[in-house]
Amino acid sequence: MTGDELAELLAVGAVTLLDVRSPEEYAGAAGYPCDPRQGHIKGATNVPLDELQFDVSAVVARLDPSRPVVAYCHSGQRSEIAAALLRSAGLDARNYEGSWHEWSRRP
């Protein structure tokens, strides 16, 4: 999924957005110096990848199964694992490949 596709879904509230980075990255207290800003995409819920890997069924139970899920991280690697886990649990889940590295450059 591209950043523009994600922006369209977010504009109409048609997606559940999961930030699978650490709580520190999500809060903007940690991150990568290559990003012009730190933080998270507005409307995202932080579910670190290790929490998802530990108990995917507990995370899935908190999500609305009728809504597609988009996962993101810093560069799309952790979020691809997250999307695969969520798909294996029966959800319509996609990866935002550009993730925070790309989104942090958006105005």
Written overview of the protein:
The chain has 107 residues and is α/β, with parallel strands linked by helices. The protein has one domain (3-103): 3-Layer(aba) Sandwich (Oxidized Rhodanese, domain 1), CATH 3.40.250. It contains 6 helices and 4 strands; from the N terminus they run αβαβααβαβα. A 4-stranded parallel sheet has the order 2-1-3-4, covered by helices on one side. The protein is globular, with a radius of gyration of 13 Å. The protein starts with a helix and ends with a helix.
The CATH superfamily label reads Rhodanese-like domain
CATH topology, anyone? Oxidized Rhodanese, domain 1
Strand order of the largest sheet: 2-1-3-4
CATH C-level class is Alpha Beta
Q: How would you characterize the largest beta sheet?
A: 4 strands, parallel
Mean pLDDT metric: 96
Percent strand: 5-15%
Question: Which segments are poorly predicted (pLDDT under 50) over 5 or more consecutive residues?
Answer: none
Question: In short, what is this structure?
Answer:
The chain is of the alpha/beta class and 107 residues long. Helices cover 40% and strands 12% of the residues.
List the keywords.
4 strands, Oxidized Rhodanese, domain 1, 6 helices, globular, 107 residues
Helix/strand layout:
Elements: H1 3-11, E1 16-19, H2 23-27, E2 45-46, H3 49-54, H4 56-61, E3 69-72, H5 77-88, E4 93-95, H6 99-103
Parallel strand pairs: 1-2, 1-3, 3-4
